Recover the amino acids of this structure.
């Protein structure tokens, strides 16, 4: 999968017609926003294709007073469930608790695209609001018609339309129970449906807790790996001993002789299923012992950056001194970023079940409709015969898109004639999932006699374009992204290549500041025009007392800062490090973040804090090591992610801009922490570390 | 090579005949349907599988079933009584100390074990107790607040 931005907005058919949809939800009223005939456009095999319009939101009003809101977005810990519930509650004028948000069940929800790219807040929140606001308007129209009053005299509060003068009331349940308004549903919802302005928000903008929190603390929430189906078997897959190795021979008989064990070989796929996990593991071991493999050459991580540079395609990456000759001081630097992995705590898992030629899969994925379409292709089924259900799952961090575990479970289940769970082991996850692309980044710039940037060049090899353009005023600026020949399976990771590009740029800005004889903060501010980026940077420096702390610096300690912008949000971080015997300890981080109008301050604070702490791992320690096609650190013993003891003194500050549209927040807060640390390490030691992870010893 | 093993699970006596080398985690999840205890790593390095064995925190993903014969095991499902959450669960809920929530049962079991041994732990004691627990959403700050809230009697 390419490292570039994944498609985030696709609008294929909903997958079932209105009648089937109603059957699933029970009697009541359905609001759709988008092309009026969207439900009628269903044609087999069209799922996954753009439908030429937007099914942006669906609201189901129960005759019993219940309200269901449907979305194709998933909940993997990022907080979409709370925010989308708030969005619906705000516009419907009902308490949050009245809303049941149905997420990511392809038989029941519209396709809101993949949950990625920080798009839920700027795209799906408005889409849900439009659907909910349309329902509210319908209630008003219904009441106005019944009471023969002007609609301006009707207010909606707490799920009820009221007419103040006559004290009459009508609820959404009344609306749903009346057959009259149903006809109105076939009309398109007005494009200009009125959304509640930020200044009038009652539910949005407040710290609504995650719905379903009680089930998380009680242990009763069923994550994908907790789904149990009648007669379910546990599956294991035969994996190659190294990348690129081909199976040449295997004897399946030892597993076939085991009680209750199903063995499947379909082309290169070999898997087993058994009534217990232990049984499956023993069956797999029994046949794995008989397997013969033909191995393939594979580059090692020790030579990774030379390999990526040699494989760079096109562009001028191989030539040096690429900036045009000119006046002023020339400065250049090359930065390396290692491969890392998301390592979500819940490994890739799927339960598959076949029933009368229909395939149902429960899995943790950010891409429910994409997985459905891949399964349909793999098993030669119309998409309508595949149902993908995504229970709230154990995190993805931008990387859970692929249909691997679902396809493996489906293959085993088809052969076994029973439901099968495939849950990857941690070692499988570390080896066979996917990786944030490694990067080689070349930066070059020129400074004039007054210390101003006059030209700039940024070349990213292998990791991608996001945030490749400098936000600074840099004179003649050029950027290039060159694909290479990646040795590992690459995929998106929160913030994509913005982390690598911003790391290189923000470290380089410190080098340029030193070359220009200025301090890191003043040098940045002198080259910044964007008022939002300036605001987070200045606020971060002031809250941290960056200048003051730096002037009182003790030997062995250092202070650094960095900032950046991506996907419409802005971040700045200040870091204090202590260096002892070549080891780096991050003592303190202050981070300021701004993403427009804040939808849920509690969730935002969790996202920003979690993102920056997650970023400590790749900044300091995380790095995939591999040799001869084998990952050398495929466990939490050897691949070191942040733990409790790594949490530094923290000050996370959110700037609210109710005057600006809300942007997503799950990615950008990770892009400033690593360069702030690298710059602090320079401040402490005088050494420029131009790599992630940042290390002073080998 | 199956064996018959008897042990307590959430206050109930359980007997089963199975391969004693199966992990406690697997048996809890697959034989008893107690899926609140999670698989995260299979090598006792993430804490998602934390349970109490005879009141002490144990990592069930590496414990062979054969070794718990006669012991008393408490899982996350065994904390709430008659639908009333345990004070530690209440503290996690009050602090919103979860994002994806997959590590949450293990964090709660670790907290329960810690507070049984040390009702008023200092920061160093808390960090030591949680050395083996991972939260990949990195919700560590709120989890620490929840632990302290529970230690302070829910305040």
């Amino acid at each position: 999968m390419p490292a570039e931005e994944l498609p985030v907005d696709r609008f294929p058919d909903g997958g079932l017609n209105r009648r089937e949809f109603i059957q699933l939800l029970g009697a009541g009223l359905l609001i759709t926003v988008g092309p009026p005939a969207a439900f009628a456009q269903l044609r087999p095999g069209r799922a996954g294709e753009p439908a030429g319009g937007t099914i942006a939101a669906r609201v189901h009003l129960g005759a019993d007073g219940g309200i269901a809101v449907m979305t194709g977005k998933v909940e993997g810990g990022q907080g979409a469930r709370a925010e989308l519930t708030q969005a619906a509650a705000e516009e419907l004028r009902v308490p949050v608790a009245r809303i049941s948000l149905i997420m990511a069940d392809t038989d029941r929800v519209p396709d809101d695209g993949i949950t990625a790219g920080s798009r839920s807040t700027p795209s799906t929140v408005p889409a849900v609001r439009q659907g909910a606001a349309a329902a509210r308007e319908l209630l008003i129209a219904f009441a106005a018609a019944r009471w023969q009053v002007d609609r301006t005299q009707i207010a909606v509060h707490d799920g009820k339309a009221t007419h103040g003068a006559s004290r009459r009331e009508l609820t959404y349940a009344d609306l749903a129970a009346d057959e009259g308004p149903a006809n109105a549903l076939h009309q398109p919802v007005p494009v200009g449906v009125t959304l509640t302005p930020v200044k009038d928000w009652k539910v949005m903008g407040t710290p609504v807790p995650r719905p379903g929190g009680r089930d998380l603390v009680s242990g009763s929430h069923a994550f994908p790996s907790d789904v149990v189906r009648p007669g379910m078997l546990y599956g294991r897959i035969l994996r190659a001993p190294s990348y690129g190795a081909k199976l040449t021979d295997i004897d399946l008989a030892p597993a076939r002789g085991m009680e209750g064990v199903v063995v499947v070989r379909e082309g290169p796929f070999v898997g087993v299923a058994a009534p217990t996990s232990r049984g499956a593991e023993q069956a797999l071991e029994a046949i794995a012992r008989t397997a013969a493999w033909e191995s393939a050459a594979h580059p090692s991580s020790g030579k990774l950056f030379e390999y990526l540079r040699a494989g760079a395609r096109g562009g001028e990456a191989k030539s040096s001194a690429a900036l045009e000759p000119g006046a002023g001081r020339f400065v250049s630097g090359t930065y390396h970023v290692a491969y890392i992995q998301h390592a979500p705590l819940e490994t890739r898992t799927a339960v598959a079940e076949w029933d009368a030629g229909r395939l149902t899969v429960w899995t943790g994925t950010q891409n429910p409709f994409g997985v459905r379409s891949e399964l349909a292709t793999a098993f030669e089924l119309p998409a309508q015969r595949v149902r993908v259900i995504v229970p709230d799952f154990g995190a993805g961090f931008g990387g859970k898109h692929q249909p691997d575990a679902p396809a493996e479970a489906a293959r085993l289940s088809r052969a076994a004639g029973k439901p099968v769970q495939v849950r990857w082991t941690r070692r499988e996850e570390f080896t066979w999932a996917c990786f944030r692309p490694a990067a080689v980044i070349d930066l070059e710039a020129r400074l004039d006699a007054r210390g101003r940037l006059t030209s700039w060049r940024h070349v990213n090899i292998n990791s991608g374009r996001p945030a490749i353009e400098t936000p600074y005023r840099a004179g003649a600026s050029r950027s290039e992204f060159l694909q290479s020949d990646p040795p590992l399976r690459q995929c998106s990771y929160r913030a994509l290549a913005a982390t690598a590009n911003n790391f290189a740029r923000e470290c380089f800005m410190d080098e340029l500041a030193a070359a220009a004889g200025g301090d890191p903060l003043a040098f940045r501010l002198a080259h910044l025009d964007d008022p939002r980026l300036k605001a987070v940077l200045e606020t971060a420096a002031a809250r941290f007392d960056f200048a003051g702390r730096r002037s009182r610096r003790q030997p062995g300690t250092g202070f650094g800062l960095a900032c950046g912008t991506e996907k419409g949000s802005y971040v700045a971080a200040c870091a204090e490090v202590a260096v002892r015997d070549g080891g780096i300890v991050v003592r303190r981080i202050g981070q300021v973040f701004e993403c427009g109008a804040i939808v849920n301050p509690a969730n935002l604070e969790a996202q920003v804090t979690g993102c920056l702490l997650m970023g400590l791992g790749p900044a300091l320690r995380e790095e995939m090591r591999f040799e001869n096609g084998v990952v050398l650190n495929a466990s939490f013993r050897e691949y070191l992610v942040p733990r409790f003891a790594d949490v530094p003194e923290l000050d996370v500050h959110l700037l609210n801009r109710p005057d600006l549209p809300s942007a997503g927040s799950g990615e950008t807060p990770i892009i400033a922490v690593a360069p702030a640390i690298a710059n602090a390490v320079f401040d402490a030691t005088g050494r420029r570390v131009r790599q992630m992870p940042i290390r002073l010893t080998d | 090579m199956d064996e018959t093993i008897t042990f307590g699970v959430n206050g109930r006596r359980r007997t089963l005949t199975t391969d004693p080398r199966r992990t406690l985690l697997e048996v809890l999840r697959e034989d008893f349907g107690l899926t609140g205890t999670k698989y995260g790593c299979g090598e006792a390095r993430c804490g998602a599988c934390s349970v109490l064995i005879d009141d002490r925190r144990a990592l069930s993903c590496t414990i062979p079933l054969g070794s718990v014969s006669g012991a008393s095991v408490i899982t996350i499902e065994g904390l709430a009584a008659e639908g009333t959450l345990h004070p530690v669960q209440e503290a996690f809920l009050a602090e919103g100390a979860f994002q994806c929530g997959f590590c949450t049962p293990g964090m709660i079991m670790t907290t329960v074990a810690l507070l049984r041994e040390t009702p008023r732990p200092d920061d160093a004691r808390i960090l030591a107790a949680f050395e083996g627990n991972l939260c990949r959403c990195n919700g560590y700050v709120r989890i620490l607040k929840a632990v302290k809230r529970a230690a302070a009697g829910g305040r």
